Amino acid sequence: MMGAMLRLLTAGESHGPGLVAVLEGLPAGVPVSLEGIARELARRRHGYGRGGRQRFEADAFEVQAGLRHGRTIGAPVALTIPNVEFEQKYKDLMGPEGSIAEDQKLTRPRPGHADLVGSLKYGFDDVRNVLERASARETAARVAVGALCKAFLGELGVDVLSHVVQVGKVKATRVKPPGPCDLAAVDDSPVRCADPEVSKAMVAEIDRLRRAKDTVGGVFEVLAYGAPVGLGSYVHWDRKLDARLAAALMSIQSVKGVEIGDGFASAGRPGSKAHDEIVLDRDGRVTRRTARAGGIEGGMSTGQPIRVRAAMKPFSTVPKPLATVDLATGKATTAIKQRTDVCAVPAGGVVGEAVVAFVLADAVLEKFGGDSLAETRSNLERYLEALP
Question: Which class in CATH covers the domain with range 7-386?
Answer without folding.
Answer: alpha beta
